[in-house]
Description:
Order of helices and strands: HHHHHHHHHHHHHHHH
CATH architecture of the largest domain: Up-down Bundle
Number of helices: 16
Radius of gyration: 30 Å
Strand content: under 5%
CATH superfamily of the largest domain: Type II secretion system (T2SS), domain F
Number of domains: 2
Helix content: over 70%
Largest sheet: none
Structural class: mainly alpha
Shape: extended
Number of strands: 0
CATH topology of the largest domain: Receptor-associated Protein
Distance between the termini: 89 Å
Amino acid sequence: MEADDAEAVNTRLRQQQMSPTKVKKKTAGFKFQIGSGVNLKDLVTFTRLFATMIDAGLPIVQCLDILSTQTENKLFAAVLRDVKGSVEGGATFSESLRKHPKVFDALYVNLVHAGETGGILDTILQRLAIYNEKAAKLRRQVRGALVYPSAVVIIFGLVLCVLLGWVIPSFKTIFKDLGSKDDLPMLTNMVIAVSETFISYFPLIFLALCGISALVVWTYRRPAGKKFFHRLMLKAPIVGDVMRKIAVARFTRTLGTLLSSGVPILDALDIVGKTAGNVIIEEAIMFTRARISEGKNMAGPLLENNVFQPRVVQMVGVGEQTGALDAMLSKIADFYEDEVDVAVGALTSLIEPIMMVSVGSVVGTVLIAMYLPIFSIAGKIKAD
Length: 384
């Protein structure tokens, strides 16, 4: 049980009609963990099952007890046990979830709070499960588009290091033994010079790459640097268009889910801005929120930011005028999620031939450079 001190544990246990004989603080020990340790799939499964149990009339504590014993993720099971203990101690379900922000984000907690307030927790949980499933699909699409080029770049880098560090020096030795070192084609001399430079300055090259990587990470962690990189991502050729469509899909899906669940628009925009994933998009959303708080509509400020496409803003305006903004946002999200499918597929189809041509050109140039002297030597031997 997690608590501030031993007395808090004693009090909570007495409330559960238990008499503790000894309360001892658990030692932290060594634990290495990246992130929350709970993936989106675990969260979707939990939300679906929890909604079904609540709809069947089971108490929240019993639902949490059942799900904490059934989940295979031990970290998630520990979180659910703590949430169960907090609910048993008198806290609301949303307050208990708020204690674990790495697992249950602001969107999740606020939707649960809206469901508790309106008495429609099972409906809200079903919406949350659908939202998380669509978010997981969107994330898989983006990751899938990045896996192939990332793998090719890493493998190409390793192959290039092997060529420059071992293969080309071996050919250089062969040319020297054959007595043709001073009569090599220009292309061969250029490749050998690159190899010699790589070997001679490898420590400096390695340190320079590490320094550049560290500088990029350091810059990205600064507000101005993050803003620069996020703006660059949105304006990049080809990739920028895909990123904008992803941002629109995420914005409209999240805002539509919040509004349809009864969350006030200002609170909803605040949550959407914090979960946008892009500083430029976040600033546009917060600017829109400020204008709405002054009495203006949503479409005008969105158009002023020049971040969202005019057709998106027009559809949002229609939704406002007809009083069905949440439904319109859901329709926009459906449309742009399909657009993301097409855009990611097109991007992957475009990247593959570019990567193949680039890698093939470099490796082919090295091979030609190394075999040109061999063909020349073979020709001389045949002539003799």
